[in-house]
C-alpha cells in the first residue's frame, strides 16, 4: 500500500515512450488565442488583466534592464500555474513533482542571472560574496559560506517546488484513502474526514498558485541583484 502512494509520481509511459513531454506541452494548447478584435471575450480579458497585474507587481523593484525578462517570467508563471492546477485533477500526472524538471527550469535561469551580473557589473556581483564591514579574520570563511549559498539557490528553487507539490498530493491521497476505509465502519467520521479533504483540496489549489509565484519571484530577486 505504501508503495502505491508514490506510484502517482512515476513518469507515465506508453509502449515504453515517456509521456511527460505531452504533459508539458498540453497546457499551452489550453490557453486562449488573442484575437485582433477590439472587444475580447471574458476569458481573454481576465487572462490579460492577470498577466498585466502580475508583471507590474513582479517588475516593480527591478531596473529598466530587468524589464527585458518580463515575457519570460510571465510565461513561466502561467505555465507553472497551469501545470500545477491540472495536476490536481483525478487521473492526471503533475510534471512539476519531478525534481529533474524543476531543476531544468531553475538551473539555466539562475545561471543566466549570474552571467548577466558577472558581465555587466562584476565588482558588484562579486561584492555580494563579502558583506560590508566584515572583520578581516572572518573574510575567508564568509566568502566560502556565501559562495556555497549562491550555488545552492537553484537546488533550493527546484526542491521547494517539488517538495510542496509532492507533500500535498501525498496528503490528499492519504486522507482520501482514509475516507474510503472509514465509510463502511464509521460513516460520521468518514463524512468529517471528507470535509477535511475538501478543505485540503482548496488549500492545495492555493499552494499550486503560490508555489508558482514564489518560484518566479525568487528568480526575479536573483535578477535584481545582478542588473
Automatic annotation (TrEMBL):
Source domain of life: Eukaryota
GO MF term set: proton-transporting ATP synthase activity, rotational mechanism
This protein's UniProt keywords: ATP synthesis, CF(0), Hydrogen ion transport, Ion transport, Membrane, Mitochondrion, Mitochondrion inner membrane, Transmembrane, Transmembrane helix, Transport
Major site of localization recorded for this protein: mitochondrion
GO annotations of cellular component type: mitochondrial inner membrane; proton-transporting ATP synthase complex
Pfam families documented for this protein: ATP-synt_A
Localization per record: Mitochondrion inner membrane
Cited PROSITE patterns: ATPASE_A
Recorded catalytic activity of this chain's protein: H(+)(in) = H(+)(out)
Regions crossing the membrane: 12-31, 69-89, 101-118, 138-159, 171-199, 205-223
SUPFAM superfamilies: F1F0 ATP synthase subunit A
Topology within the bilayer: Multi-pass membrane protein
Assembly with partners or alone: Component of the ATP synthase complex composed at least of ATP5F1A/subunit alpha, ATP5F1B/subunit beta, ATP5MC1/subunit c (homooctomer), MT-ATP6/subunit a, MT-ATP8/subunit 8, ATP5ME/subunit e, ATP5MF/subunit f, ATP5MG/subunit g, ATP5MK/subunit k, ATP5MJ/subunit j, ATP5F1C/subunit gamma, ATP5F1D/subunit delta, ATP5F1E/subunit epsilon, ATP5PF/subunit F6, ATP5PB/subunit b, ATP5PD/subunit d, ATP5PO/subunit OSCP.
Similarity remark: Belongs to the ATPase A chain family.
Protein name as annotated: ATP synthase subunit a
Organism in which the protein naturally occurs: Sarcocheilichthys parvus
